[in-house]
Design a protein that fits this description.
With 300 residues, the protein is an alpha/beta fold. The protein is 28% helix and 27% strand.
Length: 300
């Protein structure tokens, strides 16, 4: 697999959209969606008002179909770890991946683009996981307010050292999109939709350039119409392998839960929800360090 999925558009313009799929190797829909979008842009010879670059994230994990090989690649995005990764790339599989990604970043010279957007593409292990993750709305609002999916703020406080706050810190309008359940064909379509929407709302293309099947795609708006448009993190339950954590079966993303409700078990016994809210990203896969999140509707 090559690192770069596509690199199209005006390299000397003002705008850059950088998107990554497959940061977790068992989440392939973002990679497939990027491949399809780049293929359509090339085939239809669409003029881009800026540069659009798509990357594969954790190539070794993508080849093996695993979330990660040695370390979760979406928990290592901080300057200290990245410097360590570049210096000691042979020690950890994900360090080698990071080193290659940052070599691409260096070649891109993204500091030359005053208007730059970062889009990270993910899926979840439970049903109905369709939402946008942003650190704040001040810089992302002009894009995410128009997207037909709920947004969740504050997740970076529970998910430490992810790509979103890191790229935000380095001058990007930064957002992640969770497109639904891992491995579902619907997640690929949802990722395609979000890539086209970001290209349009960030001013790279006109809506008329978007494929007709995407223009007429109502799944996101219909699937999420009943949810609050803005939510914020209320609680995060971190876990360790020795905890023997097991999520109670049957939870879907954004199921309403009540304080005191038994939601999981571990070696110490029952785990009860400490607050009312909506369930988010309950862990139904063997790998991961976050058991579940609880979010609530954001006031104002």
């Amino acid at each position: 697999m090559e690192r770069i999925i596509g690199d199209l558009g005006n390299k000397k313009g003002q705008k850059l959209l950088l998107s990554i799929g497959g940061v977790h190797g068992n989440e392939t829909s973002g990679v497939i969606a990027l491949e399809r979008v780049f293929d359509f842009i090339e085939k239809e010879k669409i003029d881009l008002n800026g540069r659009f670059v798509g990357l594969r994230g954790n190539i070794a994990a993508l080849k093996s179909g695993r979330r990660f090989i040695d370390k979760d690649m979406n928990r290592v995005w901080d300057d200290e770890t990245i410097k360590k990764a570049i210096k000691n790339a042979e020690q950890v599989s994900e360090y080698a991946e990071l080193k290659e990604i940052f070599e691409v970043f260096q070649k891109l010279q993204f500091n030359q683009y005053p208007d730059r957007v970062f889009l990270d593409l993910h899926t979840t292990s439970a049903e109905n996981g369709i939402f946008i993750m942003v650190e704040e709305l001040e810089t992302t609002g002009y894009i995410v307010e128009k997207i037909h999916a709920p947004m969740v703020l504050g997740l970076h406080k529970g998910l430490l050292n992810t790509s979103i706050p890191y790229m935000h810190m380095h001058g990007f309008t930064s957002l992640a999109f969770e497109a639904g359940k891992i491995g579902s064909f619907q997640s690929v379509h949802n990722h395609e939709m979000i890539i086209w929407q970001v290209l349009c709302f960030a001013g790279f293309i006109d809506w008329k350039d978007v494929p007709l099947q995407i223009q007429n795609y109502n799944y996101l708006s219909e699937k999420t119409a009943h949810l609050p448009k803005k939510m914020i993190l209320e609680y995060c339950h971190h876990i360790h392998p020795k905890d023997e954590f097991q999520m109670k079966p049957g939870y879907k993303n954004f199921d309403k839960i009540e304080k005191g409700e038994v939601v999981a078990r571990d070696s110490k016994g029952e785990i009860k929800a400490p607050v009312d809210g909506f369930m988010l990203m309950p862990l139904y896969q063997p790998e991961g360090s976050d058991g579940f999140f609880i979010v609530k509707e954001m006031e104002g």
